[in-house]
Specification:
Blueprint: H1 11-17, H2 20-31, H3 35-44, H4 51-59, H5 67-79, H6 86-90, H7 116-125, E1 134-145, E2 151-162, E3 167-175, E4 186-189, E5 193-201, E6 206-217, E7 222-230, E8 239-244, E9 250-257, E10 265-271, E11 279-284, E12 292-297, E13 303-310
Parallel strand pairs: 1-9
Antiparallel strand pairs: 1-2, 2-7, 3-6, 4-7, 5-6, 8-13, 9-12, 10-11, 10-13
Length: 312
């Protein structure tokens, strides 16, 4: 669920990543200084700043901009015993974003999956940006393959961090196997979210689902939610892949096979894009009573990760 992001434990991260108002709030909390005492210490340095302005700054309702306000921020670094420039640097970050969000643009859907153009068309019809204001901290995904070798469904548990204020939804994409009927694919919203709009592209066999959070996030907040897709409408599948637009975050993929249809060989692989050759091939052996294989990537890179298997 979301975090308050203003405790002493969060201070080092917030001073590094921002945003400014959360870093200021965490520093005030860590030092145990009420706002009226901070005002007095600023006044002792010849800086006039009201308690109301300080309160607005730490709430994110206002942002220091005038020369006198920026002078006050530099003085706050001394009063709060912070390294020089720590808070001032965060003011160079665009409002509503964190310092961690200033990064190169992510890869487009077209460069990651063969149905990328259809996905982008669906996003445009929903009037939603492909970057939803979230970074993935961790994603655990479990895929079920049925007795006929078909993709029965998949479930995900997702941990994200907002890199701007006001984020309240996530867009999940499901790409079915050849023969999939996207109109019959069912979306399941599980913990901490509910299903919003659902759109599909019949020719591309792809579904885009809007998952609405139970809370509106602020920059720096983390959130845990779960969801799934029930499919079973496509033909026999031979691989499951996931594309990553950005680096970072942990990813775990588990594929579970029905006992009536066990593959003769499984391998994990990576790929730079659709149609590219498979790299990093590693054999995997189904084990346990669920006849499952998995891969774990501690820090994903841009591109594609997946598990492929061969039938007799």
């Amino acid at each position: 669920m979301r975090t308050t992001a203003d405790s002493a434990h969060d201070l080092p991260r917030l001073l590094r990543a921002g945003p400014f108002h959360l870093a200021l709030r965490a520093a005030l909390t860590a030092r145990g200084l009420p706002l009226h005492r901070v005002q007095h210490r600023l006044a002792a340095r010849g800086i006039k700043l009201g308690v109301t302005s300080l309160s607005y700054w730490q709430q994110g309702a206002r942002r220091p901009r005038r020369a006198e306000s920026l002078r006050a921020v530099r003085a706050l670094e001394e009063i709060l015993e912070l390294p020089g420039g720590t808070l001032s640097r965060l003011l160079d970050t665009p409002e509503g974003a964190s310092a961690e969000s200033i990064r190169p643009p992510g890869r487009s859907y077209r460069s990651l999956v063969s149905v990328g153009a259809a996905v982008e068309e669906l996003l445009a019809s929903m009037e939603l940006p492909s970057d939803g204001g979230l970074h993935t901290v961790g994603h655990h995904e479990r895929v079920r393959v049925g007795a006929a070798g078909e993709l029965v469904g998949r479930v995900s548990q997702h941990v994200v961090r907002a890199h701007r204020d006001g984020v309240d939804r996530y867009l999940a994409v499901h790409h079915g196997d050849p023969g999939c009927d996207p109109a019959r694919v069912r979306v399941r919203a599980e913990e901490n979210c509910r299903t919003g709009r659902v759109r599909w592209h019949r020719e591309a066999e792809v579904v885009v689902a809007e998952l609405l959070f139970d809370a509106r996030l602020r920059a720096g907040d983390t959130y845990v939610f779960g969801y799934g897709f029930e499919d079973g409408t496509g033909g026999r599948c031979t691989e499951y892949v996931r594309g990553f637009s950005y680096t970072g975050g942990q990813y775990m993929l588990q594929v579970r096979f029905d006992e009536a249809a066990l593959p003769v060989r499984c391998r994990r692989f990576s790929r730079s894009g659709p149609g590219a050759r498979r790299d990093g091939l590693t054999d995997l052996t189904p084990s346990g009573r669920h006849r499952a294989v998995h891969l774990l990537e501690e820090g994903v890179r841009r591109g594609i990760l997946g598990i492929a298997w061969d039938w007799e």
